[in-house]
Amino acid sequence: MSERMESSSIESSTVSSMTMMEEDEHPHQFSSISKLHSNGPTTTSVHDLLECPVCTNSMYPPIHQCHNGHTLCSTCKTRVHNRCPTCRQELGDIRCLALEKIAESLELPCRYISLGCPEIFPYYSKLKHEAICNFRPYNCPYAGSDCSVVGDIPCLVAHLRDDHRVDMHSGCTFNHRYVKSNPMEVENATWMLTVFHCFGQYFCLHFEAFQLGMAPVYMAFLRFMGDEREARNYSYSLEVGGNGRKLTFEGSPRSIRDSHKKVRDSHDGLIIYRNMALFFSGGDRKELKLRVTGRIWKEQQNPEGGVCIPNLCS
Ligand SMILES: [Zn+2]
Ligand SMILES: [Zn+2]
Ligand SMILES: [Zn+2]
Ligand SMILES: [Zn+2]
Q1: What does the buried/exposed string (b/e) look like for 49-59 if buried means 16 or more CB atoms within 10 Å of the residue's CB?
Q2: Burial 136-172 (b: 16+ CB within 10 A, else e)
Q3: Higher pLDDT, 18 or 296
Q4: Residues 222, 183, 215, 294: what is their CA dihedral angle, to the nearest 10 degrees?
Q5: How confident is the model over 69-76, as a mean pLDDT?
Q6: What is the mean pLDDT of residues 257-269?
Q7: Ligand 3 centroid distance, CA of 135 (Å)
Q8: How far is the CA of 90 from the centre of ligand 2 (A)?
Q9: I need a labelling partner for 80 at 20 to 30 A (CA). Which of 25, 44, 114, 305 fits?
Q10: Is the pLDDT of residue 42 over 70?
Q11: Bridge-partner residues for 51, per DSSP?
């Protein structure tokens, strides 16, 4: 207990020696260190030390320093033409092992803590987790443009509505007509997006034309605005027809974590070949008139089936 009291007043300059000891086989002796880092006054200073003074990103091995001890990250090192950006002296090729070891001893919260992630990670595994963190922001689901907007679901819904002028619908059934006057021009892949709001969730209905091998096709599919695990709680069906024929598709919506292109290329949706589409359209085959109807429903939740998300269950 007295150790804990003592260590709570240490400054960052003494952290390195403790870290070295931690690496000896007495981890239990200093089990309170990492806790201390994450909420004591040392957190800020050690964390500041690990921030590259040039690009302000967190530094990962190899961390470099100049002859005067100024640190910088390996990315910046390649850009500064062998001059220390801080003191302008020749940089050389010196590793800052002490700082690398300090970093190893740190435990930090996931960067998406403000989005709800409660996890804490050793410094060097933090990045790995953040790449797959369930709370990481989503990319904009709008297809056909290189939109770089990221955010949580409510923010993306507002973005789709206000910036992409996407149609918003409430309800779990839909009935959409796609009309195209020049159906021979499939190469200029057309795509449409409609957002549905039901069961307190948002779903993206994509409709588009593209070339599948030699054949022009139309495809409709649904994506869930949320992660994969939640997506599995829902199913949907799509139906298109006319002239006494119909095609149906039934499946699970894919999460918008899967890119629009990935879903399209896996053909996970209702695919209508152009000849069939024109047949459905009736008339003189000069105009495409497709009526796509669909329904979204919630699957019966199986308590044994692991629908429980650990992050939300604690
Ligand atoms: Zn840097
Ligand atoms: Zn320097
Ligand atoms: Zn996280
Ligand atoms: Zn966007």
Answers
A1: bbebebeeebb
A2: bebbbbbbeeeeebeebbeebbebbeeebebeeeeeb
A3: 296
A4: 20
A5: 93
A6: 92
A7: 6
A8: 8
A9: 44
A10: no
A11: 58
Residue 113: CA atoms inside 13 Å, Cβ hemisphere, count? 9
User: For the segment 145-188, what is each residue's pLDDT rounded down to a tens digit?
Assistant: 678 999 999 999 999 999 999 999 999 998 988 887 776 665 55
Ligand nearest to the CA of 144: 4
Residues, beta carbon < 5 Å, ion ligand 4: 140, 142, 147, 149
Domains in the chain, ordered, with CATH?
2-132 (3.30.40.10), 138-298 (2.60.210.10)
What tokens does 279 get? 């047949």
**Ordered DSSP codes for 227-259:** -HHHHTTEEEEEEEEETTEEEEEEEPPEETTS-
Confidence of residue 33 (pLDDT cuts 50, 70, 90): very low
Dist. CA 163 → ligand 4 center (Å): 7
Q: 130: part of which helix (H) or strand (E)?
A: helix 123-132
